From TrEMBL:
GO terms for molecular function: ATP binding; metal ion binding; NAD binding; NAD+ kinase activity. This is NAD kinase. Belongs to the NAD kinase family. Its main location: cytoplasm. It is found in: Cytoplasm. Its cofactor is a divalent metal cation. It comes from Cohnella pontilimi. Its EC number is 2.7.1.23. GO terms for biological process: NAD+ metabolic process; NADP+ biosynthetic process. HAMAP family: NAD_kinase. Involved in the regulation of the intracellular balance of NAD and NADP, and is a key enzyme in the biosynthesis of NADP. Catalyzes specifically the phosphorylation on 2'-hydroxyl of the adenosine moiety of NAD to yield NADP. InterPro entries: ATP-NAD_kinase_N, ATP-NAD_kinase_PpnK-typ_C, NAD/diacylglycerol_kinase_sf, NADK. NAD(+) binds at D45, G46, N120, E121, R146, D148, T159, G160, Y161, N162, K163, S164, A183. It comes from the Bacteria.
Amino acid sequence: MKYALLDRGDRLSRELSEQFQTLAAARGLTPDDTAPELVLSIGGDGTLLQAFHRFKDRVDDVSFVGVHTGHLGFYADWQKDELPTLVEFIATKQPWKVSYPLIQIDIVTDASTVSHLALNEFSLKSVDGTLVAGININDEPFEMFRGDGIVVSTPSGSTGYNKSLGGAIIHPSLEAIQIAELASINNRVYRTLGSSIVLPKHHHCDITPDPEEQLYLGIDHLVMPMTGVRSIICRVAESKITFARYRPFPFWNRVRSAFIGSEN
């Protein structure tokens, strides 16, 4: 088994990385940052996002495993004191593979169209204040948005930024994207739907800002300032991210643990 390892960079994560590599070598696992079969992140969900973007060009060929140095996250199944068990399972067990949808984001300018993938969400904001942008669904005009911003999330990302905006939590087995409004302006003159919208895989949304407007485009933890954007097309990507599961931890158990607490 060839693996790649990415840690958060703090002292504890580095120590756990060294421990994992020692245990892995004893079990015959081989480090390979070029063509790994398994990508392991040690730190938290943010570290796994970084691991995804580092290996997004190989997303169809690798599986991911997360080790959390705090409490369990949505992407990290394993606690910091469970590394010996994890290495033993990797070496001896065949995992079952769980695949989650991704967002494909096509950014259209006069010069080019550049595609990106997001695991959690895409966000759009204006540098100078109120964002004004048209939203088309399946090439038909839907609304003219005015407000602080727009967030488009995956089902797994629906527990993050999207949830804080009042969006629904969607199970990752559903291939969909969700559009949520960030502080939209609604009065007698300007109107938006005022609620999140869920689009299935065969639908897409087209966000059309003023090309002269200075924008912040967020793709997961990455933020890009841009001008000259003609259109941003969001859809469910053909590729998915795959997680290697060596023990069950159902999605709704994760939600309950994160937001309600296991004691309830």
